[in-house]
Amino acid sequence: MTLSYAGKVSLKGPVAPPALAPLLPWEAHLPPVDISLHSAVSRSDPALLQRSMLLKFLAQWSAFLHNYTDGSKSTGPTGAGFIVPDLKVEQAFALPDVSVIDWVEFNIP
């Protein structure tokens, strides 16, 4: 079989039908997300307690890939970023000034 398009592309031989992805996006299992550290410790707690709670928290998730996100909006520019320490990936970017902080915080990649 020969398949051609306006004389520009010509494929000879069997043409396979398009294949579906093995897992449809809405069937994907979402990764676990844990923000419990936020309510377990506060900035006003002693530094030693903060560190202890952080180490305990990280130990629970040691088998997982960690990524950290943040977003900010003030009277100046709006921005967001993320870090994946194990992969040595860091990304920060500016967002449109019309962004709402809730959107920034919850929609970082």
Q: Which descriptor suits the 3D outline?
A: extended
Radius of gyration, Cα only, in angstroms? 23 Å
User: Which stretches are poorly predicted, pLDDT < 50 over at least 5 residues?
Assistant: 1-6
Total DSSP helices: 3
Instruction: Indicate the structural class.
Output: alpha+beta
Q: Share of helix among residues?
A: 10-25%
Q: Could you give a short account of the major beta sheet? A: 3 strands, antiparallel
* Arrangement of strands in the largest sheet: 3-4-5
Number of strands: 5
Approximate strand percentage = 15-25%
Please report the distance between the alpha carbons of the first and last residues.
44 Å
Order of helices and strands: EEHHEEEH
What's the mean pLDDT score?
76
Architecture overview:
By secondary structure, this protein is an alpha+beta fold. Among the domains are: about 30 residues; about 45 residues. The protein has 3 helices and 5 strands. The strands form 2 sheets. It has a 3-stranded antiparallel β-sheet with strand order 3-4-5. The protein has a two-stranded antiparallel sheet with strand order 1-2. Strand 3 and strand 4 form a beta hairpin. The longest helix is centred in the middle third of the chain and has 14 residues. The two termini are about 45 Å apart. The relative contact order is 0.11.
